[in-house]
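FAQ: What does the model actually see?

It sees only this:
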Amino acid sequence: MTEIDKRSELNLCAKAAVKYGYKEQDLNVGLELFAIDEFFDESQSPDLSEFHTGKANDGGIDGILYNLEELNKVIVIQTKYKQGKVDASTAAEARDFFSRISEWADPQLRSRLNSKTQ
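And it is asked to produce this:
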């Protein structure tokens, strides 16, 4: 994807939110869906909502893309949307994603996550 300015990026997030039944103002969800759409493999289902896991108790995972027939590649997506200025705490929250791999790998801990993430 080519470089785009912030306004264009926000417009893409708003369009993704609306496409999947959310409000145009739901930019955080729009960003999650936009990211899933960017990694989407054309051989998969055109309804990307099945790959969207970003909800309460998602384990920090906003989307999981995979091909059920092959299962040779899994893409785990995490986004961070913050209205206003990004600061050190925002970066720390985004980096925290990588510390959760053991939680996802442990069946007992994973059972606490929402059903789509599991």
